[in-house]
Amino acid sequence: MQSHQQLFSTPEDWYEAAQLRTPALDQTAIMQRQGVADAYNSNHNISDAAVLADQQLYIQGYMEIEEYQDYLFLKHSQE
User: Fold this and answer.
1) Helices (H), 1-79
2) Extended strands (E) in 1-79
3) pLDDT, tens digit, for every residue of 9-60?
4) Residues 58, 65: Cα–Cα separation, whole Å
5) Which residue from 65, 53, 50, 67 is spatially nearest to 14, judged by alpha carbons?
6) In this structure, is the dihedral angle defined by the CA atoms of residues 20, 48, 60 and 44, taken in order, positive or negative?
7) Cβ atoms 24, 61 nearer than 8 A
8) Confidence category of residue 5, pLDDT binned at 50, 70, 90
């Protein structure tokens, strides 16, 4: 099975491709994910705009958790 990382050469390409997808979640699921993320971010003092934008890939349903984790691994392994 091919990993998600092999499909994209850069995290920026991956982010842009994900943004073009049709989200697979209804508004209730999005609101639930956003609530969990808001609580986590508040408890851990997370306010960085780039981090919050990345979170939206999962929250809005552009990526499922496994792909989101792969995306973050690629992005942060290049820093």
Assistant:
1) 11-19, 27-43, 49-59, 65-77
2) none
3) 899 999 999 999 998 899 999 999 999 999 999 999 999 999 999 999 999 9
4) 7
5) 67
6) positive
7) yes
8) low
Angle between helices 27-43 and 49-59 (to 10 degrees): 150
Scored b (16 or more CB within 10 A) or e, 5-24 reads eeebeebeebbeebeeeeee
CA dist list (Å): 60 to 1, 7, 9, 15: 26, 21, 23, 13
Q: What single DSSP character describes residue 23?
A: P
The DSSP symbol for 22 reads: P
